[in-house]
Amino acid sequence: MSQILTPTALTRRHPVPPGEFTYEPSERRVRGTIGEHTVVESASPVLVWEPDQAVPGYVYPRADVHTELLTPTEAPAHGRHAGVRAWYDLELDGVTYPALAFEYGVAGLEDYVGIDWFRRTEPGVEHWYEEAEEVFRHPRDPYKRIDSLQSNRHVEVFIGGVKVADTRVPVLLFETRLPARYYIRQADVDFTHLRETTLSTTCPYKGDARYWTYENGDLVEENVVWSYPTPLASVANITDYVSFYNEIVDIVVDGEPVNRPESEFSAALAAARER
Questions:
Q1: For position 67, which CATH number holds?
Q2: Which pLDDT score is estimated for 147?
Q3: Are residues 192 and 258 in the same domain?
Q4: Are residues 117 and 160 both part of a single domain?
Q5: pLDDT tens digits for 70-87?
Q6: Would you give the end-to-end CA distance of the chain in angstroms?
Q7: Which of 48, 216, 228, 255 is 20 to 30 Å apart from 159, CA to CA?
Q8: Residue 243, beta-bridge partner list
Q9: What is the distance between the alpha carbons of residues 210 and 190, in angstroms, rounded to a whole number?
């Protein structure tokens, strides 16, 4: 049987040309609210991929944004966006939301307004909707697909040479531009050295995740294990199953080791290990 490999000489395909802005119209109706107030509602938003960013954002025609709430401001220090020519605070009910709105200095986007969203830690828009369905963390990418498939592969997971999972009934989750993830039922996972942490994250495609850190002697791998207790309906078969970052753990499938892949998470995972 051939070894399962992620060739290091190849780069995963990506719809965004390196170093360039890419944008296209969307037909989804998008709405953002703060409290009882709608601050933006548009049936003609534009999806924007900033240079070298895998996650898209939206911009909206100025007429679809409550621009009377906006006041020009200085550029924020966070630097989450490229190519911005102007920033705006949003003031609502006596509360100022700093650097919440912006305009790109990009040809073709001059008449559109963006609202800061992905990775924003400051108060901002509280709820986002595409059509009548709430979405979380960032817009859903029309070029991204997720398939979670029941499998009969024999999957073993090792951390620091210690086997922590062994199953013959995994669910394999395939997500565009990410490595395959091996989801394993909790009955097939050894939790002896796993400690649940306070970290929680939200994925617009899968739902809310909880995490565990692996601790065994001097070896500590922070938040290397996760699970979705109540995933979205499209991936319901991973409910309470556990998965591991195969960027930093060792996975063996049908007796053959799987190469540790490079992904958009690799740099952050490597930095966490060096702390």
A1: 2.170.150.40
A2: 95
A3: yes
A4: no
A5: 999 999 988 889 999 999
A6: 39
A7: 228
A8: 226
A9: 17
- DSSP structure string for 44-111: S-EEEE-TT-SS-EEEEEGGGB-GGGEEEEPPPSS---SSEEEEEEEEETTEEEEEEEEEE-STT-TT
Domain with 102, as residue range(s), is 22-135
Question: What is the C-alpha to C-alpha distance for residues 164 and 187, in angstroms, rounded to an integer?
Answer: 11
The number of folded domains in the chain is 2
Residue 162, both tokens: 């210690």
Distances from the Cα of 75 to the Cαs of 48, 81, 100, 177, in angstroms?
A: 20, 10, 10, 32
Matching residue, tokens 């059509």: 131
Nearest to 100, CA basis, from 83, 116, 85 = 116
Let me know whether 150 and 262 are in one domain: yes
Alpha-carbon distance values, 243 to 167, 185, 195 (Å): 12, 9, 14
How many CB atoms are closer than 10 A to CB 253? Answer: 19
Q: What is the pLDDT of residue 55?
A: 87
Same domain, 128 and 209: no
Q: Which residues of the chain have pLDDT under 50?
A: 1-13
- Which pLDDT score is estimated for 15? 58
181, with CB counted inside 10 A (0-12, 13-18, 19+), is buried
Give φ, ψ of 97 to 5 degrees: -105, 100
